[in-house]
Amino acid sequence: MSLELAKKLYAKMPDVLAKARKKFGRGLTVAEKILVSHADDFEAQQWERGKAMLVLRPDRVAMQDATAQMAMLQFMQAGKKKVAVPSTIHCDHLIRAEMGSEKDLLRAMDENREVYNFLASAAKKYGIGFWKPGAGIIHQVVLENYAFPGGLIIGTDSHTPNGGGLGMLAIGVGGADAGEVMAGLPWEVLHPKLIGVRLTGRLSGWASPKDVILYLCGLLTVKGGTNKIVEYFGPGAETISATGKGTICNMGAELGATTSVFPFDQKMVDYLNMTDRADLASLALANREHLVADPEVYQSPEKYYDQIVEIDLSKLEPYVVGPHTPDLARPISKLAAEAEEKKYPVELKAALIGSCTNSSYEDISRSAHVARQALKAGVKAKTAFLISPGSERIYHTMKRDGFLDTFEQLGGTVLSNSCGPCIGQWKRADGVKGRADSIVSSFNRNFPGRNDGINETLSFLASPEIVTAFAITGDLRFNPLSQPIKGADGTEFMLEPPVGEELPAKGFAKGEEGYVPPAENGDALTVDIPPTSERLQLLQPFPRWDGKDFEKLPLLIKTKGKTTTDHISPAGPWLKFRGHLDKISDNMFLGANNAFSSEPGKGTNVLTGETNLTIAQIARDYKAKGIGSVVVGDENYGEGSSREHAAMSPRFLNVRVVIAKSFARIHETNLKKQGILALTFADPKDYEKIEQQDRISVTGLRELAPGKPVTVTIHKADGQTVTIQANHSMTKQQIEWFKAGSALNALN
Length: 748
Hints:
By secondary structure, this protein is of the alpha/beta class. Helix content is 31%, strand content 18%. It is built from 24 helices and 30 strands. The strands form 8 sheets. A 7-stranded mixed barrel has the order 22-25-26-27-30-29-28. Strands 6-5-2-3-4-21 form a 6-stranded mixed beta sheet, with helices on both faces. Helix 1 (2-24) packs parallel to helix 11 (278-286) and helix 14 packs parallel to helix 17.
């Protein structure tokens, strides 16, 4: 399927790229080539970075099972017989890590039967490819099967940018975006600015591709990439494997970036050949000039990128980031001193490798090399060591080449080919709520409570090689570059730098791939939703805007500090309700810090005076009384996962307005899609003016227009009023979504 998509794309690229060069009066970067080649109407499109809304036609849609439930429920509302673009569903999020691969998978099949049957039946009916539970993690499966240089894919997961490792723009979106594209509509996104990252030198020793992005997270922070594409280039880029590039692009989501991309090169050819796509590799080689930036871009990059970062790979040290945020970064050589200074618990309770970010053959082979050195000296892991393979292909190749046996001898437990602990699907036996423990992983995200549901856990991120070394010593202060390990006989030895292969010399082993194709004609098929289901609920349209201003709405919550989508709509045990909007809305804001409460997720019902209620309980009471409410947020509100439940639950519980200092890209779009008014303080200091008992009015809504500020009046308990200005980024179309009650309402 990707071969035909690539043929069609490459055939149109020469003409549209020539038009773009003429229109822009200059050469084009890789990202620009892909964007202009996917414009819905190139001639009518405005091209202004940071301001214009791009209207694009993605080649493909990918959905993971947790977000696919709501995406499919929304798609079904569109009344279409079949998806308009190639689409797939990947069952990877609902498998809880507890006892090991086989038992965990069997339990998941039983616990999630309703959801899997719904997704499988919807996929078969509507022309969607279905990857069964255990087949692999969405981003690894997409890289192995669907990603291709120059393509544009949207996925209902924030780490979709993993596909940038094969030279495409792969972008995370909410389910409503996916549903609309599957229904045949174009997709809109703010024209991103461009960050150019010039790589020189070559990685060596303990340094890995993971350290490139960990270093960048520390440099640019979690909002440094918001509404920007990170484009890598330079001689160093060509030395990194395709899967290593995927790791870097995957975790670009932690910068808030729209996506990340590398130019096409020989490493991508090698990977395509190894994954049975030699015909696609040959086709891409024949069209190479369209899949790399024009020569003048590399000669004078400062003229083409809005910001340039230089990284010499030869000088890069291994990095460790965390706890609690991926931009708290330092080289491993400085971690021990910081741990002592900040009193981090240094005894590691778990070390975890794999996940969608780092489960390539290269990652696993380098980690196994570290493990074998310990085994040779009679040493085993001193902490829980868990391994999450990325796909069936990776799992069977690991097994054939002895890596699984190595990890198990070290004391490791191999989990199913799924997300598991990375997204909170982990029953951590030794975890105690209220107790601060340290864990380390090669995952991509480490917000409080993210992995084990315990907010106090200190979660650190590093490369899989470094994590394996940590597993061997069980000590956060350990630095394998400078410190020895004591063998079973008491003799000290140094771990040699890890050595591995980018790709398996014997090729990838084959297993049960787990792919189920759709029906040729699904018209006569039905979608399986049991009427008494507690996991699934057909959606009802949200009410249209009544044409009136929002007058004196109570403040539901004023979040303080980092407010991720994990805080707004936690995962873990709540994942099972992702297809039931009413039930999952009970988790709303459970992880968020309320400026007026000492306990996360709790607040005061300002109508009754009752305290220590969950935010959902308060919102349900307001809704029952016909009253809407307002949420106030801090900087980069809604960063992290693409989960649209963080927008749908507030909308379902009658939140009408969210006012924040700033928004993360995907969440702001999700709020707009669900008919919530997303505003930013014109003066961020006005955030401080909001108090618990305030009533908030938003007026002039009949005159809503792109670029026009909105008046917000704060009514104080003593009768005084404070008037402030708020901005919005809505286009004319998005204003119609607000008026219609949601984007789906506007579609129908």
